[in-house]
Amino acid sequence: MAIIGKLLKRVLILHKSVKKVRRKPKASKQQTKTLLKLLSKAQFTAFGTYHGFGKILSADNPVKAFQNQVPVFDYNKLYKEWWHKSLEGLEDICWPGKIKYFALSSGTSESTSKRIPITADLLKSNNKTSMRQVMTLAHLNLPEETFTKGVLMLGGSTDLINKGHYLEGDLSGINQANIPTWFHAFYKPGRNIARERDWEKKIEKVVENAPNWDIAIIAGVPSWIQITLEKIIKRYNLKNIHEIWPNFVVYTHGGVSFQPYKKGFEKLLGKPIQYLETYLASEGFLAYQSRKDAKGMQLVLDTGIFFEFIPFNSSNFDDNGLPTANAKILWIDEVNDFEEYAILISTNAGTWRYLIGDTIRFTDLEKHEIIITGRTKHYLSLCGEHLSVDNMNRALNEASEHFNVTVKEFTVVGVPDGSLFAHKWYLGVDEPLDKEQFIAYVDQRLCELNDDYLTERKHALKNIYVEVLPSEIFYNWMKKNGRFGSQSKFPRVLKGERVADWTDFIITNPVKS
User: How far is CA 75 from the centre of its chain?
Assistant: First the structure.
């Protein structure tokens, strides 16, 4: 393992020197080439034949022809019209061949699990992008011994469920079941623990084995990594996690904004570490942080994903977070750095013009770096306040810093308030908190961050309420709703029937102090 680590370090140094002189092709050229490859490979599938991929390939402007001939899909539409056939075992539906894997993705917007197709081509693309992010470690000036230590990847079970025609499980479990052989020398928790399907048992096994490992890099969703580290610290009566893993230097996170978790996470550390963000969705590895201290993640434009962008505003989206019939749709050459966009992706897993549900904003157009700002269905606009998850995260993070308190989870609900409206915040906090002062601070920061919110606070948005709960209630609710696992995240905005489900759960399932 030490030899492999030294070789990896040398490869990273060589990559760093080569990258300085290598010029990247123009983004539009990369994306056009990507689209043509996708269309060419899928032109004889049922989807490709129906939508005239052959004609698109011969068009003078294949991007515009593609946009004109292929409609926009969300999950329900694509599943109902096409993907269900692949689940039934049929071949050549949206991508050549038979789909071997389907990733279970509950996301944070739907009440039932989605099944996202995972092809061999997509897995290759994911691995290629993963290696690119590994190469970014060359820019972090890490100690050489880092590359001989363990990498803890806390993900779903690699013991995938056999459904007859296909295997299904969390994307993280599918990916880890297909990691390169050489990486097993570093990979923790190891094959046996990785197969565990019971999430609570898996975390317990990680806690039990923690003293046997020398971890340098950790990857996983912030909430579950934080819970695991807290359990390790408590079990072994430690002051911080570095007392057991002194070589822990890098945390790679994704899935949700790290902002609300950062303060609580850093309370678990004995020394500073470096952070790298990833945008690895069930549908593909879309972006990763390629530079130290970069404000955003670099979109991956040349590994099998074609991107389109819909300005996220009332002209292009209805109140349910779905695109309007005449929504304006752009591609990489037409975006700017001051608008918020919803993303459409077409991939080498037979995902075509698919509304992935996330909203983003470009932080660097030249480097094609983005930040995730929220979800198309996770925003509040009861009366025109247009409050995004990005606004919520920023205000909550600043309030946490100001009051020196850790908010482990939160969600917001829009409610009627007499003839007007109100927001109600639910905060998962396990320490004393003056909730009225805290929410007043959040409210003030939201007024400063969002002009629409400020206007409506003077008119239709009458009140802001808050309820502070033990963080355990949030995790128990996820467990009750089948969302207890490696990629499960608590929704930042609750709407519709889920509001009643949440409020009833709080009343009937109090956590004993």
Answer: 17
**Which of 392, 205, 356 has the alpha carbon at shortest distance from 284?**
356
> How many other C-beta atoms are found inside a 10 Å radius of the C-beta of residue 212?
9
CB distance 255 to 222 below 8 Å = yes
**Phi, psi dihedrals of residue 186, rounded to the nearest 5°:** -105, -25
The pLDDT tens digits of the residues spanning 199-232 come to 889 999 999 999 999 999 999 888 889 989 999 9
Are the C-beta atoms of residues 304 and 323 closer than 8 Å to each other?
A: no
Do residues 166 and 229 touch, judged by C-beta distance below 8 A? no
User: pTM for this structure?
Assistant: 0.81
**Residue 477 buriedness (CB in 10 A; 0-12 / 13-18 / 19+):** buried
Cα–Cα distance measured from residue 332 to residue 27, given in angstroms and rounded to the nearest whole number: 7
Structure tokens at 38: 């996708």
pLDDT tens digits for range 146-190:
888 999 999 889 999 999 989 998 888 898 888 888 788 889 999
The DSSP code sequence of 50-73 is: HTTHHHHHTSSSHHHHHHHHS--B
Nearest to 26 by CA among 302, 344, 311, 338: 302
| Portion of the chain with pLDDT greater than 90, in percent | 61
Looking at this protein, which amino acid is placed at residue 157? S
Question: Contacts for 499-506 with beta carbons within 8 Å, 24 or more apart?
Answer: 499/413, 502/411, 502/413, 502/426, 502/477, 505/473, 505/476, 505/477, 505/480, 506/426, 506/467, 506/469, 506/473
Q: How far apart are CA 246 and CA 255, in angstroms?
A: 26
Give the 3-state secondary structure of residue 451.
Answer: helix
Taken in order 391, 397, 403, 407, the sign of the CA dihedral is positive
d(CA 188, CA 113): 27
